[in-house]
Amino acid sequence: MMPKMKTKKSAAKRYSFTGTGKVKYKKQNLRHILTKKSSKRKRNLRHAGILSTDNVQTIKKRLLPYG
Hints:
The protein is of the alpha+beta class.
């Protein structure tokens, strides 16, 4: 019998799945040095990003096998 696959914990903290199976993530560049960034740019960075369908299979299979 094969052992269980381990979830990559770093990936588990960065990505989550939506109800329809898409991969959701928090956008980068909203932690520091915010004064030079425009309000519009900061506002758009607040919302979660959806990963492109090309990379979804890689995330599901390699990093989050039980996600």
